[in-house]
Design brief:
The strands form five sheets. A five-stranded mixed beta sheet has the order 1-2-5-4-3. A three-stranded mixed beta sheet has the order 10-11-12. The chain has a two-stranded antiparallel ribbon with strand order 6-7. α6 runs parallel beside α8, α12 runs antiparallel to α13 and α17 packs antiparallel against α18. The chain is an alpha+beta fold. Helix content is 46%, strand content 12%. The longest helix has 20 residues. It folds into three domains: 135 residues, Beta Polymerase, domain 2, CATH 3.30.460.10; 144 residues, no CATH class; 55 residues.
């Protein structure tokens, strides 16, 4: 990749000058550098400096410090509306505390991927000891894990003046921080990322290390992965890593019967990707068919999966129990799995019947799951997908029109029927109310007290 000068915001350049005015060296590092090299506009900027934590307090004495983290030797400074993170060079983290070093090369050696270990300074240019710039090809970034490749002697341009030539042998970033295993897959699940074979093999080889992460951290990272745009690719290419986190799904990866022309695991992966990127909806698609291997039966002409939704709810519950997931996520996912097979038709009366059982937002989410489920089939029925979209529009129209879609919205009540002598008890009144409700679902204009009472009279005469 041709070396070029990066377009650095004035606020970032100003922070560099402030640090250097006190005799301390500093570099811009991390994803912001690779984003600039791709022609993008970073949301965040990170700077590393030889200054230790106490020196940083003095350096920024006239600058607004938004937050301080002594353990990580880091501060967040605010300059003209931009918040910039400034950290001391560190060679690693021990017991949750950054280990200070006076050489930025040790800091870069402790990062995750080559592309995130590029340092830049407007005057001194790029410092790229791990060839991260070679991992950028136009808009595409190739992930290469630090510590998984032979380390070369630093190139001359990677050394500051009077600095000794170093020969480091950093540990694999997956070993020093197993969270990087999922971070690699999170990158891969995003846009314009590929992964080098050596790094891919290292991801698979070190997958068991994920079990050493705290459950809350592991669940948070896994959820973030599940929400990525290209999750289907990750699930099918790194299945064993996936199963390290969700062993409850192993049977799905081994299940032989096909689901509409593709394997069960392929269908689950595709349905997760096609569902909206909300945690409960993605988890619902992840487990919606997970009970099929345990509920499979056939009679020679057809396959059956009676009770698979209930089994899926159980498996999802076991997963959430293991990670002590929050109740809201558990309950919402459970509801979606339970009702994921709800039949959807673009029929106004039928949709109003569904609205008597579900809230409008709940029903829309179920429709989106049905859409994702059908789109995950190799042979997508475009007419059915179009019907789902029309059903959402019809729902919106029903709500906006104020039509009756629940028995409680009828213009007459049980007591009205009993008081007027149309029913002698609550049971009879309920039967009449059901009759009236069915009539109003078909003809909304009937929902006025005089008209409904007249309907009861006519029915009684018959």
């Amino acid at each position: 990749m041709a070396v070029k000068k990066l377009n650095i915001p004035s606020q970032v350049s100003g922070v560099l000058k402030t640090i250097e005015s006190e005799g301390c060296r500093a570099y811009i590092v991390g994803q912001c550098v690779s984003e600039l090299l791709r022609g993008g506009t970073p949301m965040d900027y990170d700077i590393i400096t030889i200054a230790d934590f106490e020196e940083m307090q003095y350096i920024f004495r006239d600058t607004r410090i938004v937050s301080r983290d002594r353990r990580m030797s880091s501060v967040m400074v605010s300059v003209l509306g931009m918040v910039i993170q400034v950290s001391s060079y560190k060679s690693g983290i021990e017991n949750g505390t950054a280990v200070y070093t006076d050489n930025y090369l040790f800091d870069l050696a402790g990062r995750d991927f080559s592309v995130n270990a590029i340092a830049y300074h407007p005057r001194r240019g790029f410092k790229d000891p791990f060839d991260g710039m070679e991992c950028i090809n136009g808009d595409t970034i190739t992930l290469k894990a630090i510590g998984e490749y032979p380390v070369k002697l630093w190139k001359e341009n990677d050394l500051d003046e009077n600095e000794l030539t170093l020969k480091l042998e950093p540990q694999s970033c997956f070993v020093t921080n197993p969270a990087n295993i999922l971070n690699a897959l999170i990158f891969l699940g995003g846009e314009n990322y590929t992964i080098d074979k050596v790094t891919a093999d290292a991801v698979n080889r070190n997958a068991e290390l994920l079990k050493t992460l705290p459950p809350d951290e592991l669940l948070s990272l896994f959820t973030k992965l599940l929400l990525t745009r290209n999750i289907s690719k990750v699930m099918t290419e790194f299945t064993d890593v996936f199963l390290t986190v969700v062993p409850e799904l192993r049977k799905c990866t081994e299940f032989e019967p096909k689901t509409g022309g593709c394997s069960l695991w392929e269908h689950i992966a595709r349905s997760v990707e096609f569902s909206p990127p909300y945690a409960d909806m993605r988890y619902a698609m992840l487990f919606h068919n997970s009970g099929k291997p345990d509920c499979y039966s056939e009679d020679g002409t057809a396959e059956y999966y009676y009770g698979h939704a209930e089994r899926g709810r159980i498996l999802a519950g076991l997963f959430f129990d293991n990670f002590k997931a929050e109740k809201r996520l558990r309950d919402s996912t459970d509801f979606l799995i339970e009702h994921h097979d709800t039949v959807i038709r673009d029929d106004r009366a039928y949709l109003k019947q569904l609205l008597s059982d579900f809230e409008a937002d709940e029903l829309k989410r179920l429709i989106k799951l049905r859409t994702a489920d059908d789109m995950a089939m190799p042979l997508v029925h475009d007419g059915k997908i179009a019907e789902y979209r029309r059903a959402v529009q019809t729902l919106d129209d029903i709500i906006a029109s104020g039509e009756c879609y629940r028995m409680s919205q009828l213009a007459v009540k049980e007591n009205d029927l009993i008081r007027r002598g149309f029913a002698s008890n609550s049971r009879q009144a309920q039967q009449i109310m059901k009759y009236l409700f069915d009539a109003v679902l078909q003809q909304p204009k009937l929902n006025s007290a005089p008209v409904l009472l007249e309907l009861v009279k006519k029915a009684i005469r018959k």
